[in-house]
Amino acid sequence: MTLIGFFRIILKNLKWLIIFPVMLAGTVMYLTRNMAREYQSSATVYTGLASGYSITDDGDEKVDYFKVNNAFDNLITTVKARETIEEVCIKLLAQHLLLKEPDPNVLNEKRFENLHKLLNDSEIAKLVVPGNFEKTVKRLYTIKDSSNRNTVQYLLSDASSPYATSKLLGSLTVARKSTSDMLELGFKSDDAGVCWNTLKFLIEAFSNRYKNIKGSETNNVVKYFEDQLKLAFGNLQNSENRLRDFGVNNRIINYYEQAKFVAESKEDLSTDFYKEKMKFEAASSALKRIEAKMSNYSEFVAANDELVNLRSELSNINYKITNAQIYKYDAGSISDLQTRAEKIKLELSEKARDYYEFNNSVEWLPQNSLLNEWLAKVVELEESKGRLMVYDQRLKQYDGIYKEFAPLGSTINRLEREVGVQEKQYLSVLHGLNLARLRQQSLEMSNQLKTVDNPFFPLQPLPSKRGLLIMVSFLAGFILLLAYLVGSALLDKAINTPDNVEKIIGLPLLSALPDLNEKTGKGIRLQEMYMSLMQQITNSLFIELKQIEPNAKSYLIIVFSTKGGEGKSFVAESLVNKLSRIRKKVLYLYPETSAPSGSYLEADNPKLIQYSYAVNDGIIDYNGIQDFIQTQEQEAEDLSEVSYHVLEIPSLNKNPFPVHLIEQAQYSILTVHAGRSWTSADQFQLKSFLKLAQGKTSVILNRVHADLLESIYGEIPKRRSVVRKKLKSLLGGEQY
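Request: output the structure for the sequence above.
Response:
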């Protein structure tokens, strides 16, 4: 749609585009004649969400704007929460129910009367506790929660109730003031007292709820860490007790020092054992060598049982002495054993001297020296043997100690590691608890919402919106009607303009004719347009026929339509009038179904011959014009001088048509009404016709709105103001 077309729609429907908005504005004016004046109050609350100081703030903390915006969203949501609004409504209701008479600071006279119309005295008596606001609020809450349907629930939920939460929320505005820490609250009402008290109750309600919500977050966290700290402390104590009990049960004072002492003692004992073993091996070798030198003496000594017994006793005494020294017996016992050993040695020496009288060995060594040496080695060997037995026994005891201490070490490590883990867990939970308590204290400090601007009592009502509503209704009516008209034009599937003919029907356009019955009211000279367009049709048709058969003496032209009511009789008669002025004579054949016939034919035209014919199945097989004329009762005229045979056939969708004549026609004209849409049925009928037509077929668009013929006619002949001419020129047209 072009701009010119858009303005044509406006001008065409200008009357309704004025009447409808005026009626709508008048209706709004009537409905708002008793419109109540509104009062507005506001308050400003400081939140500290963006720039407020916190205990955890070290001075370098950057502002997280996303976090701040999220905090403001949470706060605004808390203000608009259902329970917050419900609390405000209940407090307002309690305040109003306690009134005995209207109070300008609480409830005006009109709303006081409406309240007592809504609730009678007996119902009010059930809802209030006389003279006590807090108890009245509690009673209202109790009644509300007692069932799903009660008086309080009705007052809070019914849209017609002045205490409905939805109505209060609709009159409330909550917004952050620019990028500051301030939250601005506004409320409108037709009662100044209600407006003022609503904001006071609202600030109190949402401040408490917000503080409780934020406090409950940290309280839950602190309680969690306290519970976890108790659990961690209990686990730590249990681990330490297991470590203590393990040390007591296994007689361990300091495992690592004890293990070190045992290891060092065993090393010292092993060293002494190997030294003593070397002494034993040396004494044994020396004794064997001495005995080898004094073999006879050895036999004599070996035969002496007493001497052997003394040796055995001496060895036993030496074993006891060594054992006592290692196990650190008291000095008296060790001294007695040593005294006994000395006595045995003396006795052994005496016995040896008595029984061995040999002074020299077999190698002629002095027997006394050899005997002394042998005796010394025997004593040394026996002493070493006793000590080796004690060392060996002690080493076996150390093996038992090692077997006992080895698993104790791994167990102690595991228990100490468990104590360490429990201690770290305890310290971690303790650290978390300290942070949570610090956060709790910080939130308690920052959650103190402070009212910067308290709600004020509005003394003057807001300017009335009645004029704005009337203006908006007028504009809305104009825009809606215009949108409907433009939408209808865009959705209209009718052909309407000559430009759409070829795109929709698929045949070339011969021309178009205006709707002569149109009441434009614009001073359009329709008859002038009609005559000009008929001349265009005649010129175009004459040119087409000359191109088809330039030397033909007569031409057959068929005028048809796919449906009835297209105006083909009007087109045919108009065409006959024009053609009768070109050559000798024109023959016009039209069906009897055409009515009214001859309305547009020129009277007493000597060049016009016209016949009507009956529409029946027989016309399908007519071979020529004579077949139509032979059916007439009147005498047939001479047709030898006829230059144009114009045959109007009935609508294709309901009537038979002359097949042979359609094949013989040099030109066919399809008449289409501009005000209707072209359907697939029309296309189907046209397709059947075109299968027969040998000559050219084109379209005449009939009954077109005069303003839509500009594309083929040119400037439409009508009266125009200077403004319209300039406007059309600006919009891209010649004139408008």
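Confidence is low (pLDDT under 50) at residues 358-364.
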